[in-house]
Amino acid sequence: MEPPAVVWDPSLLGYDLGGDHPFNPVRLQLTIRLATELGVLDGVPLLVPEPASETELLRVHAPEYLEAVKQAPMAGWDVGHGLGTADNPVFSDMHDSSALVVGSTLLAARKIAEGEARRAVNIAGGLHHAMRDHAAGFCVYNDCAVSISWLLEHGFDRIAYIDTDVHHGDGVQAAFYDDPRVLTVSLHQHPFTLWPGTGYSAEVGTGEAEGCAVNLPLPPGTRDAGWLRAFHAVVPSVLEAFRPQLLVTQCGVDSHEEDPLADLSLTVDGHRAIYSTLRDLAERYTGGRWLAVGGGGYQLIRVVPRSWTHLLATVLDRDVPPETPIPPGWADLVRKAAPQAELPREMTDGADPAHRPWGDADDDPVDIAIRDTRRAVFPLHGLDPDDPRD
């Protein structure tokens, strides 16, 4: 079997929104260092990306928007297109750094399309909020949407995109809302309670793509067991009905209970269970073809490095046991940079992510969300929303 592809280069740290902005690239650096210290990346060649070309960016972005991004560092703060805001501040080399992130996910996609890898992972990707003509949610260019568009012209005509970030995967949904070749699935905190305020269960796609947008908004406080119950109650069934050739997953970890920007209550153990499930679904439905990218995650020391090290390990079939101690070398590195930081001791939060199966008689808030989504989407795929066997 072709070895998985891992895309990483320190130049990706250039996507830096500056100051005390929560989208801090140190989370990537600490992840790669932790994975290296644990031996997850031993013998794995790290693929070095190049910036995406304008032609590739124009697959999903407007020409005037690209020009605005290029001019923004010289024009100052009043440039429009969502640029120069608190969420999306202007920074030097913004176009080139953003294009490099897109290029990194495109490189991962290319390795799969060309048969050089069945799986590929790029933790620097996952900028799922960027829209056709404006920046949003810390995202300038949408690497997920650009790469899916490219894949549709390079051997694939049925792609499933699954977004596990705490925020709705709105930019990718918008890019393919009327395209029946792309199934977009997003599990996120309920839009009543969290930006961007979209991702209701009634958002199902339009025209021939009706049913190809699947949204599962979850109540604040949802823990591992509820999240995983919701996932299993919806996602495998729609995948089986859609019959994708490739799985693309955005694996944001801002769903963690310690994340400062949201209110779900997952653990590192829950994240590890999610990645294992995604790997199993790829083996079951797409011949193992799986492209995984990063996304959100703002507990920079205790959460992101551990969760995404588990992601890298899962893609590489080098699963790290939860009880594995944190390597002293990584801990020393963090203590020097952040002496007051509270460090994790193991690759686990000590949680059990086991969940019970969904049944249509359940009436807690998570199960109500499950029912709403199943009733909105399942009939469009010929499935019975009230039958737990579907």
TrEMBL record:
<dbReference type="Pfam" id="PF00850">
    <property type="entry name" value="Hist_deacetyl"/>
</dbReference>
<dbReference type="InterPro" id="IPR037138">
    <property type="entry name" value="His_deacetylse_dom_sf"/>
</dbReference>
<keyword id="KW-0006">Acetoin catabolism</keyword>
<feature type="compositionally biased region" description="Basic and acidic residues">
    <location>
        <begin position="346"/>
        <end position="359"/>
    </location>
</feature>
<dbReference type="InterPro" id="IPR000286">
    <property type="entry name" value="HDACs"/>
</dbReference>
<dbReference type="InterPro" id="IPR023696">
    <property type="entry name" value="Ureohydrolase_dom_sf"/>
</dbReference>
<dbReference type="InterPro" id="IPR023801">
    <property type="entry name" value="His_deacetylse_dom"/>
</dbReference>
<comment type="pathway">
    <text>Ketone degradation; acetoin degradation.</text>
</comment>
<dbReference type="GO" id="GO:0040029">
    <property type="term" value="P:epigenetic regulation of gene expression"/>
</dbReference>
<comment type="similarity">
    <text>Belongs to the histone deacetylase family.</text>
</comment>
<feature type="domain" description="Histone deacetylase">
    <location>
        <begin position="21"/>
        <end position="314"/>
    </location>
</feature>
<feature type="region of interest" description="Disordered">
    <location>
        <begin position="346"/>
        <end position="365"/>
    </location>
</feature>
<dbReference type="GO" id="GO:0045150">
    <property type="term" value="P:acetoin catabolic process"/>
</dbReference>
<protein>
    <recommendedName>
        <fullName>Acetoin utilization protein AcuC</fullName>
    </recommendedName>
</protein>
<dbReference type="InterPro" id="IPR003085">
    <property type="entry name" value="AcuC"/>
</dbReference>
<dbReference type="GO" id="GO:0004407">
    <property type="term" value="F:histone deacetylase activity"/>
</dbReference>
